[in-house]
Design brief:
By secondary structure, this protein is mostly helical. The protein is built from 16 helices and 4 strands. The protein has a two-stranded antiparallel ribbon. A two-stranded antiparallel ribbon has the order 3-4. Strand 1 and strand 2 form a beta hairpin. The longest helix has 25 residues. The radius of gyration is 19 Å and the shape is globular. 50% of the residues are buried. The mean pLDDT is 94.
Length: 345
């Protein structure tokens, strides 16, 4: 899992495969190149996941998709995450690879992300009392072949249709060791590594659970006691809190992603942290990280665990997540200038 995380970090950094900037360019300038790449990535992942999820196991290991219910709290969480990723300047994966690549500001976002996730874990009971519906898995409802095939075809058709609005990028040279890499590499490699995660861990790629866990462990060192909290009294959460982070799959992958991005930045000669952060930008980093952490916990994940892995698992909540996150991004983009953040990038 550490190796898969390392490879993800290298791929994300060299491809600059982010989500928040892609949505910002879509909202402000109608640019669709990165959106098309995401659609094709989802199509590849859907086709790769379907046979394994239909089987339900691989070499005796049970496999499960990224499935989650949808309701008021999930929609609001994704909406809040959309605002946060525009203020923070990165999504779940973007925060990790940018922080690993040498951005002190994104380290601030990461710390606030952990705090927001822990905060939401304390409020989760109240949020989950709001209306919520059981997971809807298209593969189970309509059959994995028809559902995955139809979803992949739809994604590819939309990507093809958007081609007419795509401004042809300038040709640029790339180097496999130093980067940059073409988007096609991300389209193919990210589903491959997500598939590897499914086979090795028994579930698809996730990110933000680890941030919540890190926040809880930090709170413990400050004197917080989890016994009275229902979320942390559940068997899985209690076991994770009592165990080393090195036994947590998501944490191990996140550590690998940070290291992979750092290594890629060093090989590219771009690992050059700038420690001066303007006060307003720092404020946006804190608010954005808190919003993403809180929102991701309510929404059962971020752009990776809920959107990428959810859609690839044919779970309806993945599609609802991206609708809400785009709505939040629309507001977040308008808030960025208040914090002195440029919208050009």
């Amino acid at each position: 899992m550490l190796i898969v995380g390392l490879l993800l970090g290298v791929t994300l950094y060299h491809c600059s495969f982010g989500f928040s900037a892609a949505y910002r360019r879509l909202i402000l300038r109608g640019e669709v190149r990165a959106i098309r790449a995401q659609l094709l990535m989802l199509a590849v992942a859907t086709l790769a996941f379907a046979p394994l999820l239909a089987q339900g196991e691989f070499l005796g290991r049970p496999l499960s998709g990224a499935l989650a219910p949808f309701g008021v709290s999930m929609f609001f969480g994704a909406f809040l995450f959309g605002i946060g990723m525009q203020l923070g300047g990165g999504c779940g994966s973007g925060t990790l690879y940018a922080a690993g690549g040498g951005s002190p500001r994104m380290l601030v976002v990461l710390l606030a992300f952990c705090a927001g996730g822990f905060w939401a874990s304390l409020d989760l009971g109240a949020w989950q009392s709001l209306p919520e519906w059981a997971p809807v898995v298209l593969g189970e409802r309509f059959g994995w072949g028809p559902a995955a095939g139809a979803q992949a075809l739809l994604l590819m058709a939309v990507a093809w249709r958007l081609r007419r609005f795509d401004q042809a990028p300038r040709a640029q040279s790339f180097h496999w060791c130093r980067g940059p890499w073409p988007l096609l590499a991300g389209i193919l490699l990210l589903p491959l590594f997500n598939l590897a995660t499914l086979l090795l861990a028994g579930h698809p790629w996730t990110i933000t659970w680890a941030f919540t866990l890190w926040g809880a462990k930090a709170a413990q060192t400050l004197g917080w006691h989890p016994a009275a909290e229902s979320f942390w009294s559940a068997p899985f959460q209690r076991s994770a809190l009592e165990s080393s982070l090195l036994t947590d799959v998501t944490s191990i992958m996140n550590f690998g992603l940070l290291l992979g991005a750092a290594g890629a930045a060093m090989l590219a000669g771009r690992f050059a942290p700038v420690w001066r952060i303007k006060a307003r930008s720092l404020g946006a980093a804190v608010l954005g990280g808190l919003a993403m952490g809180y929102g991701a916990r309510l929404a059962y994940g971020c752009n990776i665990g809920a959107f990428f892995s959810g859609v690839a698992s044919t779970s309806l909540h993945g599609w609802i997540w991206i609708v809400a996150a785009l709505m939040g991004s629309f507001i977040g983009v308008r808030l960025r200038p208040l914090f002195g953040l440029a919208n050009e990038s």
